[in-house]
Amino acid sequence: MINAAGLRLDLELIAGQVFPGSRVLDLGCGTGTLLAHLMATKGCSATGVEIDPDKVVGAIRKGVPVLERDVEEALVDIDDESYDVVVLSRTLQTMLRPEFVLSQMGRVAERMVVSVPNFGYLPNRVRLMNGRMPVSKELPYAWYNTPNLRFTTLVDLEDLFARLDLVVDRRYTYSQAGRRLRMYGRLPNLMAGAAVYVLRPAR
User: Fold this and answer.
1) Report field, pTM of the whole predicted structure over 0.85
2) In order of start, what are the domains of the chain with their CATH numbers?
3) Helix (H, G, I), strand (E, B), or coil: what is residue 168?
4) Tens of pLDDT, residues 134-146
């Protein structure tokens, strides 16, 4: 679902977590839609990291400063606490080393915003029980052409956050149709198609 500003729901939620004037790093920034929005509406200074050359061109056309690099390699070269906010939107599941990426994010910024599809979503479980890999709005690829390397439930992801000493300040969950869910505890692990987390390192 796209809002009037041209943002997906998760990007709209992410934008709402960024304070005006923040230094923002967007890992896997795509064509720079989020960063262009933050620069125009909140006066943020922004840097994107994107490995797809076509998307890099799209970001540059929007006036977004972007590094054409692999996320993991780019993070190693960024100094501690260089940014106020670091964003990872629908990208964690494509990472070879998600644990490393999250740890590095906590090093370079005091505030982290991460959005992920939920593999534990009830229709995904039903599809698995019927002998098929899940295909949905949040997981739209077939098993043989998916860019996704890691599949996590919200419960498993939150366990990883705890192990990395990342504090969850907020969690937003929403349905496949883009409707915000007002649920707490572990029920969203069944009912949410995806989630957005606002995190900070426990330091």
Assistant:
1) yes
2) 9-118+150-201 (3.40.50.150)
3) strand
4) 888 788 888 888 8
